[in-house]
């Protein structure tokens, strides 16, 4: 490249004028950026650092060569005019490696608009830049070799505005229609850490053969360098047309974004489901930008899972997570998540991150991704809607419109409005006729959420239908019914999780129905049981929790309410109760109670109370598993990856995680339930009860997380039978005292047998005698126990009906499933 920019470049900069004599400052290479140059003194330059065009999100890139005849110190003033200095200067040594210049070499002036760099350079040519300069041909060659070495398909999927290739690498799956993971990078030229991080990320992902099994569950589309023109021209941010590619995912006016979209759409047409997008960038800190949890995406809560898994394998501060969503901003992240309802994450590495740390962090993020994918593909998850979808604005508005359409249909059947008006309302009961952003704008005017929605929706309706909409009903009726439908959905989700948990618990119990362990009461060794017997207790409470939810669901179905402002059906006319019943029927709800129950709010309070019971019961399971993992007991463990770290200073630690989270869920949910119980105290016919709804939504969402965690915990349990046996032996046989008493009572009075066995136990505790020796030394019971004591002290033969309890529990659960019309229990080999 000659000069600074080709003639067609949008922002014309003066040709540089510091190339005569020595030392000289030049920009005759791809990726250079420097504007008008003034030689203030022989070894003192000032150059302009201007963007390719404006407006622009400033990422002031600079890159130039210094050429000298002898080693010397040179001063360069970087003049940014309307921007601020951002990137610390870096120098390329004769071996081609880059290293940051010392802090002392740079002085910032005029609030960052000028930066003076003083650098000592060797004889010859020295390159200085904001970040490493990696020419496009070198990058293309790297990716070609990388694809070949790692079995990826390399392809040119399009051309940039200037005709440079847009390349992709694809890793196909042997499985039909495997979901698609898209990985992109290089949208903004100066964000070199994003490119370097992407290289290390992919290396950790694909170069380890042990990852092959997990990777085979997905198809990968990788487009590592989306803006080759911008890189070649040394642009701050834009492509050759002066546009930010990460603001073109929607308009798709540029060939670069069109090429990537085309690849995704081809796969969608072939029946492949987009699963995840990762878009690599760089900014001032390590951060990942995600959608909020419960945003209605599938797989649900992917970002939270991935972030947690990165934390598990990275022993330094994990990158921050910013959970936000800007539906009006046409970024890759927004377009992908909005279009495919799948998670899309912008990965940003810090501008000045140490490159060795960058490599390690990128590899940790890849390992975290593999763990997350493994979790999601191996865990059983219920085929139900995520809680974020249920309580999101889109679903809430959709339910409002669905209820309004049902009301209109019922009113048309009773002659209150015309059938054509009802049909039009039903036909346009779709959130596309009430966009979120328009409702938000309308709300700023009317300050009433229902009126704002109705006003926007009515714009799409004929005058007749607009007049018939929301006829004779009140806002609180609509939103109470919305909440009822939402809670019914959450109950289905909870029940789905519980069925999966039940399958896991029954199989776990069966596989350990004969595994002896210590039964404990008041924290003390009591009598032997089996681990399978213990698990049946967990399965029993899980089944009772299902029963609670089924009963609650039946009551909630009768809570669709259309009784009007004070519960008299006045707005609906003389057929008001019939219209309410018909509306409930159309919505799939049960027969509404004739009595107005809105002021009592007991059904919502009951929902909260039952979730509190559920949370405490699963917290109890978590608490027991937490304690069984104690170093002094060690009978079970939560399986963790070999790369997981327990402590930053105590490397031996293997800390509980999910069991602790269950304990926390129990505290949070039971605490939140109090708010809903307080809400049952109302004033007269109706109080303002909209704000506690948010507490109810939060309660439900936490309940979803709790069920995810308890299922994951059960599936990850590692059982240690040998440690269970060791613990039973710790008292030297004293746990069999009851058995000894029963045996001796056949020959001597029971109270006498108890006294003699107790004396032997105390003697053993207070001396160095073993319990067995103390028993045999007793002149009364010793002779009676001699020859049989070893068998009597064997705890594995004294577990009562533990194994039978496991079998009977499975039979009981099978019967319960039949009575509830639930799926049969899965065989434990599945």
Structural class: alpha+beta
- Overall pLDDT: 88
Taking Cα atoms only, what radius of gyration do you get, to the nearest Å?
35 Å
Q: Uncertain spans, ≥5 residues at pLDDT below 50?
A: 1-15, 379-385
Estimate the helix proportion, in percent. 40-55%
Count of DSSP helices? 27
Principal-axes geometry comes out as flat
Quick synopsis:
The chain is 45% helix and 14% strand.
Description:
There is one protein chain. A hairpin with a 5-residue loop joins strand 11 and strand 12 (165-171). The chain is flat, with a radius of gyration of 35 Å. By secondary structure, the protein is of the alpha+beta class. Helix 6 packs across helix 8 (355-378), helix 16 packs parallel to helix 27 (802-819) and helix 22 packs antiparallel against helix 23. The strands form five sheets. The protein has an eight-stranded mixed β-sheet, sandwiched between helices.
Topology at a glance:
Layout: E1 24-26, E2 37-41, E3 44-48, E4 63-68, E5 72-79, E6 90-92, E7 98-100, E8 106-109, E9 114-121, E10 124-129, H1 136-149, E11 153-159, E12 165-171, E13 180-185, H2 192-206, H3 212-215, E14 219-223, H4 228-233, H5 255-269, E15 274-283, E16 287-290, H6 302-313, E17 320-323, H7 332-340, E18 344-350, H8 355-378, H9 387-391, H10 393-413, H11 419-427, H12 436-446, H13 449-458, H14 463-468, H15 475-511, E19 516-521, E20 524-530, H16 531-556, H17 576-586, H18 602-628, E21 636-638, H19 658-678, H20 691-716, E22 717-719, H21 721-728, H22 737-744, H23 750-766, H24 771-777, H25 782-785, H26 789-792, H27 802-819
Parallel strand pairs: 3-5, 13-14, 13-15, 15-18, 16-17
Antiparallel strand pairs: 1-4, 2-3, 4-10, 5-9, 6-7, 6-10, 8-9, 11-12, 12-14, 16-18, 19-20, 21-22
Helix pairs in contact: 2-8, 6-8, 10-11, 10-15, 10-17, 12-13, 15-16, 15-20, 16-18, 16-27, 18-19, 18-20, 19-20, 22-23, 23-24
